[in-house]
Design a protein that fits this description.
The chain is an alpha+beta fold. Helix content is about 40%, strand content about 25%. The chain has helices at about 5-25, 80-105, 110-145, 150-180, 180-205, and strands spanning about 35-45, 50, 55-60, 70, 75-80, 210, 215-220, 230, 235-240, 245-250, 265-270, 270-290, 305-310, 325-330. The strands form three sheets. It has a six-stranded antiparallel beta barrel with strand order 1-10-13-12-11-14. The protein has a four-stranded antiparallel β-sheet with strand order 2-9-7-4, with no helix packed on it. Strand 11 (about 265-270) and strand 12 form a beta hairpin. It is rod-shaped, with a radius of gyration of 46 Å. The two termini are about 75 Å apart. Residues about 20-30 have low confidence and may be disordered.
Amino acid sequence: MPKPLKVLLVLLLLAAAAFGAYYYFHLRPAEQKPKDQLTLYGNVDIRQVHLAFHANGRIERILVEEGDQVKPGQLVSELDPVRYQANLARTQAEVAAQAQVLARLLAGSRPQEIAEARARLAGAKAALSDATHLYQRNKELYQRRAIPAQTYDSIEARFLAAKADVERAREALNLAIEGPRQQDIAAARAQLEALKAARQLAERELKDTKLYATGEGVIQQRILEPGDMASPSTPAFTVALNNPVWVRAYVPETMLGKVVPGMAAAIHTDSFPDRSFPGWVGYISPTAEFTPKTVQTPELRTKLVYRARIYACNPGHELRLGMPVTVTLDLKNPKRSARGGQNPCPGQ
């Protein structure tokens, strides 16, 4: 092929490539987003719980490892319970003793005690009668100066003491018949209630030596080990909550009227490009905010948006906390999920 022809062919190819590039970047019509769909970008929300004992003590057992799946109410660790068991036993004994005190007050005086008080009164009256006769005889003798003053004074003192003994015995009999005062019964009852409250607190403290999972999740971090001292201010575990899983996304203000709670959603992630996770809109914030910088869509960065929570069906735990996802809402057919906004996922 002649050289001029080769040069011409190269120039034609270069011109065609330049025109193609110009067309692609300047003349090609921009891609039109489907008007019947709303695409949101967000992340699977990270939710963690820091599990800590509600008591102080030395850790005796740890029953889970990092990566273990836990369920609500599952026992994960225990403290040495000896001190708390001894405290509970002491308060139980105090409650039992005070209950007997109150029962004795409520029962009042026994018949034998009342009979004894009557016998004392009768004896005091007999002694007073004897002292009265002796006093009256010696009083006449003293007036006639037949006995010395010292003897008369001794007999008079005996008479007055006998009168006091009778009054004392009579009051003791009245007290035995009436029984304990209501104030004493009320004080004993209040003391019993205080001891019962102390017993309940001791029971609660003993239960607090066991640490339970508060929700379904995965042990993300095991912070303490057996033998460590635990306290309410020191977490023993970090649990990543993975049921339910939801996506934190942001709805533009212009599209707010088309998104309703319970609307079905499709969730996509780069980790599973050929799969779509079903979900539903669970919550839309009542207040507007500026788009977070984590949302990298250029047209949304400076606009007001409303935070939304899109729940996801995640039976196989493929969706991990913090994972970036794309949420698609069908605006043309905005049907609510099968349960009206509640969990439509089978088995979840």
